[in-house]
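Example record

The entry below shows one chain as it appears in the dataset: sequence first, then C-alpha cells.
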Amino acid sequence: MNVPLYKRVLLKLSGEVLMGDQDFGINHNIIKYLAEEIRSIYDLGIQISLVVGGGNIFRGIAAGTFDMERTSADYMGMLATVINSLALQDALEKKGIQVRVQSAISMHEVAEPYIVRRAIRHLEKGRIVIFAAGTGNPYFTTDTAAVLRAQETHSEILLKATKVDGVYDSDPQKNINAKFVKQITYMEVLEKQLKVMDMTAISLAMDNRLPLAVFNLKNKSGIKKVICGEKIGTLIKN
C-alpha cells in the first residue's frame, strides 16, 4: 500500500470541505485533518500541489441571487480562495512542511505571483505549492484552475477530494436508484452531464488526457490509498 504510483500530483479541495459541519468559514479540526492526510503522502516523497475553492466563504457564481455583477463576484470568490490557501499553508507548516502559496492575482505581501517555472522548481525542492485565486480570470471555476495548473506543472493525476464517495450515473440526491461508478470516461461524463466538475474543466482534462480520481475525503488515508493504487472512489480517464 505504501508504494506510490505517481511522483507528482495535484489535489483539488472544494471550499465547502473546509467548513466541516459549520454553516460557513473554516473548521479548525478539518484543516488539521487535511494537514495530516497531506503529510502522509508527502512522507512518501510525492511532489504535491493544491488548488482550493472558496465556497465556504463566498461563491461568485451564486452572487446573481442578490443582483451582484458576476465579474465582481468572481473576484471576491478568488480572494476567498487566498484566505483558504493561507489557512492550509499555516496548518501544513505546523507539520514541518515547507509551503509556498502562489496567487494568480498579485498580492505580494501574502503570496508569490504565479510563475509556472518557479512552481515546478518548488516542487522539485520538496515544497508543497498551493495555487490560489483560481485562474485569475472571472467566469472560470477553481475546477478549471485545478486542471490548468495540473497540466502546466506536468502532474500525473488530478485528485478531487469531495464529500461523496465518487461518481454516480445520476444525481444520488435526486435519484435514490443512482448507481456508483468505479471507472468512467470523460466523454461519458460530458454526455450524461454528470456534476463531477464543470464542463469546461472536464473538457480540458479530456483534451489533455489527464486522469482524474474522485473520492471521499472522509475516507481515512483516502489520498494515500488513491496514490498507492487502492481501488477507492472513481477514476475518470479517456
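Notes for this example: The two ends are 26 Å apart (CA to CA). The chain has seven helices and eleven strands.
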